[in-house]
Design a protein that fits this description.
Blueprint: H1 3-19, H2 23-34, H3 39-45, H4 55-82, H5 105-118, E1 123-124, E2 130-131, H6 133-136, E3 162-163, H7 168-177, E4 182-191, E5 203-213, H8 219-234, E6 240-247, E7 250-259, E8 276-285, H9 287-292, E9 301-308, H10 309-317, H11 330-335
Parallel strand pairs: 1-4
Antiparallel strand pairs: 2-3, 4-5, 5-9, 6-7, 7-8, 8-9
């Protein structure tokens, strides 16, 4: 091949590359011209047959062809990748239905609870998950020897920093920052070293409530509020029952039961034939708690209550294992949609 013929072949190859319209055509031309058995490598192998005096110029021309061809192929390949593909659309086909997602059951319980109590004048208060000993224990009248302060029960970071074991510290922060009347609910994530069975988790959500006023507040007020919440959350016909109990931060203290929403109090497997389901702890705020936040216990009174969002979700939706709420299995979540 003469130099003139080589120049003609180069020009032809560059025209073919410029005319390529898709990635397949570009690849075919790459194989044709610079592939292992392509035209340019064949010329390089045939250099031994070129007259000695013509080899420098011929070799320089072949290398120039190779460089230009590689550059043109690379540019064309990028262009082919970036160009939109032609897709034929059948406009007679029905549209695709994109399924909407659903809210997580815990989010639904918390939001619904906030809406119910908002109708009673309660606002939502929030606070940090990392707390100090005073807000989480001392201000709530919890003695130092109480088991909840042990490192086997609580996640501690040093001597005065811990992951909150309840959302009660939010109540303490709210009272320290505001004067009565106070009417708040405190939903949030809490942490305890408790993974003993299918109904307990080291990470769970509590929803606590607090009402403090300068006027007289009684257990009757507390019961009426919880009865309203029970009906709104679980349905008509649900009532509440108070049973004496003990909590360091309330006096008197009660356990709160709802009539079983499944059997309406007649007894079934869900309520273990008792007709009642234990739901919350509550009571009148202990005067010593008021003292810790700077309130005059002779001039104010109030009640507090708290329950687990997971507990309500498990009862309302019939969930047997608390761990299902944290596995994020779409099949399970869609069943509750």
């Amino acid at each position: 091949m003469t130099l003139a013929e080589l120049e003609n072949a180069k020009a032809q190859s560059l025209r073919e590359i410029a005319a390529a319209t898709d990635a397949a055509a570009v690849e075919a031309l790459r194989v044709k011209y610079i592939g292992r058995n392509g035209s340019i490598p064949a010329l390089i192998k045939a250099m031994k047959d070129v007259p000695k005096e013509e080899r420098p110029a011929f070799g320089k021309a072949v290398q120039a062809w190779r460089a230009e061809a590689e550059g043109a192929l690379a540019a064309k390949s990028s262009e082919a990748k970036c160009s939109p593909k032609t897709v034929e659309t059948d406009l007679t086909l029905p549209g695709r239905w994109w399924k909407l997602g659903v809210k997580h059951p815990l989010s639904r319980i918390i939001e619904e609870t906030a809406e119910i109590f908002a109708r009673l004048g309660f606002t939502v208060a929030d606070g940090p998950e990392l707390e100090n000993r005073f807000n989480n224990f001392t201000a709530l009248n919890t003695p130092e020897h109480h088991p909840s302060q042990d490192r086997t029960d609580t996640f501690w970071f040093g001597d005065d920093c811990l992951l909150r074991t309840q959302t009660s510290p939010v109540q303490i922060r709210t009272m320290m920052a505001n004067k009565p009347p106070i009417r708040v609910i405190c939903p949030g994530r809490t942490f305890r070293r408790d993974t003993t069975d299918a109904t307990h988790s080291a990470n769970f959500h509590q929803i606590e409530g607090l009402y403090v006023d300068t006027k007289s507040v009684s257990l009757a007020d507390l019961k009426s509020v919880l009865a309203y919440f029970a009906r709104e959350m679980m349905g008509d016909g649900v009532t509440v029952r108070f049973r004496p109990h003990f909590f360091p931060f309330t006096e008197p203290s009660v356990e709160v039961d709802f009539t079983c929403h499944v059997c309406k109090g007649k007894g079934c497997g869900v309520c273990k034939q008792s007709g009642w389901i234990e739901v919350a702890g509550a009571g009148m705020v202990d005067p010593r708690v008021f003292g810790h936040v700077g309130y005059d216990a002779e001039k104010v009174s109030g009640y507090a209550f708290g329950f687990g969002a997971e507990r309500i979700a498990m009862i309302k939706y019939g969930i047997p294992d608390i761990r299902w709420l944290y596995e994020n299995d779409v099949r399970f979540l869609n069943q509750l949609g």
